[in-house]
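To close the chapter, one final illustration. This time we ask the reader to focus less on the individual chains and more on the assembly as a whole: which components sit near each other, and how the overall shape emerges from the parts.
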Amino acid sequence: MRWSNKLRLPVPSSQFPVPRFRLRTGNWELGAGALAILLAAITLLSASPAAEENHISVFSPVAIYTLPVMEHAGHEYVGLLELLEPLGRVSTQTDRRRWSLRYNTLDAEFVAGKTRAMIGGHNFDLAAPFLMENSRGLVPLSSLSGLLPRFLGMPVNFHESGRRLLIGEVGIQISFQLDASNPPRLALNFSAPVNPTISTEPGKLRLVFKRDPVVSPGSQSISFDSKVIIQASYSESNGDAEFDVAATQPVMASFTNNRKTIVVTIVPTATVAAGTSAAPNAAQTQPSTANVASRRILAMVDPAHGGDERGAALSDTLAEKDVTLGFARLLRHELEIRGFAVVLLRDADSSSTLDQRAAASNVAHAAIYISLHATSEGSGARVYTALLPVEGSSKGAFHAWNAAQAPVLPVSRMVSAAIVAELQKGQFPSRASSASLRPLNNVFMPAVAVELAPGADGIADLTNANYQQKAASAIADAVISIRDRLGVQP
Amino acid sequence: MIPRHLLIGVAALLVLVVSMGIYARQMRRRAGEFQYAADSPVAPPPSGPTETVTLYVADDAAGMLRARPAQIPLPGGRQQRAEELLRALLRIYQQPGATHPLAPAADIRSIFLVDPGAAVIDLNAAFADQHRSGILSEQLTVNSLVETLAVNVPGIQRVNILIEGKTRETLAGHADLTETFDVTTVEQAGNQ
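The assembled structure is written out below.
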């Protein structure tokens, strides 16, 4: 069984008399071209500057992810299924205006347009009416603080203005320590390793925490008794936390203590001179993480399918595309805490072609590509490398698109074997194999596909965060065990 | 007052709707041109002396192909022989309790043997439309067809799979059907 809404237009094959057809339709193609130009012009005229998409960041012990936020009648909404999916077993059912959701063993029922909901047999009043959009259930953000503990059975800390949701005891605390000696040093101590994006501009050093559940140090702004490093301020917006350190001289940041401490110091004079001579009055936005990033391995994680292309129907309500997305977010977290830079090829229910996925990975010069799939058949996991087709024509240094994988296939097989070994260590039935599965053959870095199958609890395992976590952790361990073969050291 | 960008957006949509209508009409007309009679005579069931062949039968539980000898009547022609081979394989998959079930309506439309060493398997729409979606099950189907054909019809080195005479991206969402399968590579994969 397969779900797909993809429209297949009847494309004439080359076995048919194409030349005659082309001659007769020359005028038509001209008209279509003119129409396309007209439409493009209209679209350009009506285009408004793209605004940054609003989203909410969710930090939990099992997954860190972001979800899009929609606005309706002055309230902000988020999809409840998408919110709960990475955290446990979720299924939904829609019956006209009624939207039922089961999270693990807890049943809830919502009615479109109503604020009253029933959760675990108890009434719950939302701050704004429940919305249904294409069978998706949307709840107001302002109700999450009260709503989620009923499902999760644990406290949540929702910073509504910054759209940061912390589930359980995941918050990372910050403390400051200023050494006012000459030159001064400011140590930012975190209770867990962090991985912010760091940039500098005149008079300011900015640390943006997108993937770390950093919480406010208590006061939004702290002033220091120093003439160089004068102030640190904390703010949250659109799912991110930001630390700004104000200074009267150019400053830089470096990591110590296993990434649990960031030390802010003055940039040595020679470095400043070199920088200023090159661009005297420039804003000098210096990506201070550049050196760090260049030493880290970039992993592309591809949750297969998405959008209209739902993949396999794993059950009546569960599509492969949803399992792969949750699984990918867990794998991203597991890889990141092992020091990898990770890009998800989709982080929402969106679609892109196989060529686009391959091109994005190749352009990024990723060190490894991991495609994630799910199946309702078999058990454990299967790890695939490319089954290369008959190679197209190659020109000199340029490899045929359909066999770009050929030079690195031996390394891909080593990665595959390492993943199988790690999965088996965790009592996870697994096996390596080859498959004619695009875009494995189109990427020029080591590439594998992992197909997650049910465990002892059957299909329910596929949405079980613990089950996915176990597999994701094994994959990440395997990748790090073979990082030397990937060409870059983290 | 209605904002300007809304007016422009509505105008663009109207143009789009009209142009799509014209395009759909054009497409329907073209499709009519390409209709061709699919009423080729049905081949009689093969008869005559039987031969021992080796069918490569997929086993989902084991995730592999198993070589199974079979006695089937085979016609003399190389192409008809290839078609009967794969139909015999298909019958195994369509039996109750098959190790790799395929839809009852799944069928081989025809096989074209193109020298030197190329074979094109044309499957019917039901074969792909009703196939289970999943990397393993789809790949086993492909491998089973390719290996059975290559082992029993000497000289085949490359295989293409079409659905209803046309290239389809995947069998059921995973196995890529746009490329040409290399028999040696498929055999090596089967031995993994």
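The first strand of chain A starts at residue 2 and ends at 4. The longest helix of chain A spans residues 26-46. With these observations in hand, you are ready for the problems at the end of the chapter.
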